[in-house]
Amino acid sequence: MKSENTAQGAEYRSGFIAVVGKPNVGKSTLINGIMGTDLSIVSKKPQTTRRNIRLILTTDSSQMIFIDTPGLHTPRTKLGEHMIRNAKSSIRGVDVILLMTDARNDKIMRLDEDILTQAKQSRVPVVLAINKTDLVRKEALLPVIDKYHKEFGLAHIIPISAINGDGKEQLMEVLEGMLPIGSMLYPDSMITDQTERDIVAERIREKALTYLDQEIPHGIGVGIERFKLNEEKEMYEIDATIYCEKDSHKSIVIGKNGTVLKKIGSDARQEIERVLGAKVFLDLWVKVKKDWRNSLPMLKTLGFTDKPRM
Ligand code: GDP
Ligand code: MG
User: Fold this and answer.
1) Nearest bound ligand to CA 102?
2) Alpha helices, DSSP H, located in the chain
3) Which residue, by CA, sits nearest to atom 9 of ligand 1?
4) How far is the CA of 40 from the centre of ligand 1 (A)?
5) Alpha carbon of 92 to ligand 1 centroid (Å)
6) What is the pTM (predicted TM-score) of this model?
7) Residue 223: pLDDT above 70?
8) Residue 292 — φ and ψ, nearest 5°?
9) CATH assignment of 196-301, given 3.40.50.2300, 1.10.10.10, 3.30.300.30, 3.30.300.20?
10) What pLDDT score was predicted for residue 303?
């Protein structure tokens, strides 16, 4: 056990940290920075992280399990509702809530207020990280910090920049100190609870979103039909389907002469090869499933189950 190496006899700590906050505040960027990998997807578009993903950071002094939640927002579709349920259930049963906000907002957002109220009810301590401080003047932060402090009595308010790493060390120290004393909950070689299939599907979705830009905001899902290691050829054979909601979307995803789909496929394949550490044959299809975001069977197919993943 690593806890034997713990410095100055301090006890080993371990626990769950739910990272919550509005879409686009930088949750995934922060977690990626902490983990030193990009296992959680970052995108300029909100709501890229759909499922709760656990990322596990094991050090000599602690094991911190970060839960990257999909952005909380007003639900409009079943997928939206599912995301919120997921995010809310991720607040329950954690040891610390890391609420992230954008330093450019000087008002307390309704959603952040909801989270803080909920945290209070469930008696989970909150750390507030005010992110993107690289975009504002230091003086502008003071009234914001003051407001949160006065209205919610938050003891830990830490300005950070997930992009350049400012404040990260202090944040990590505070978070670690708030975890209960206990031994590792996962083997120290494990860094995520995502399966390879999940990772592959997310890569494809990320690439598709990159190429489709604003055109098909969030109406695509990715299903993995086949995921097979061909041992003879030492390569993975993967069949995947991109689901969209309308025929017109399908033609956009495919592009003229299939150019868009080809680009999505070749970019995704290269990344998947890096993640899996082997050659990949990727067969990518596009299908229309009208209203898939409101279809429970479809959500199940795509891995959005109703069971909380905790
Ligand atoms: P999430 O939806 O909360 O997970 O947000 P993301 O991590 O996907 O980040 C959303 C956008 O904000 C991305 O374009 C990031 O590059 C950007 N971003 C995140 N953190 C910072 C920061 O500290 N400073 C600046 N300038 N941009 C940031
Ligand atoms: Mg995210």
Assistant:
1) 1
2) 27-35, 78-91, 110-121, 138-152, 168-178, 196-212, 247-254, 259-276, 296-301
3) 26
4) 12
5) 25
6) 0.67
7) yes
8) -60, -25
9) 3.30.300.20
10) 61
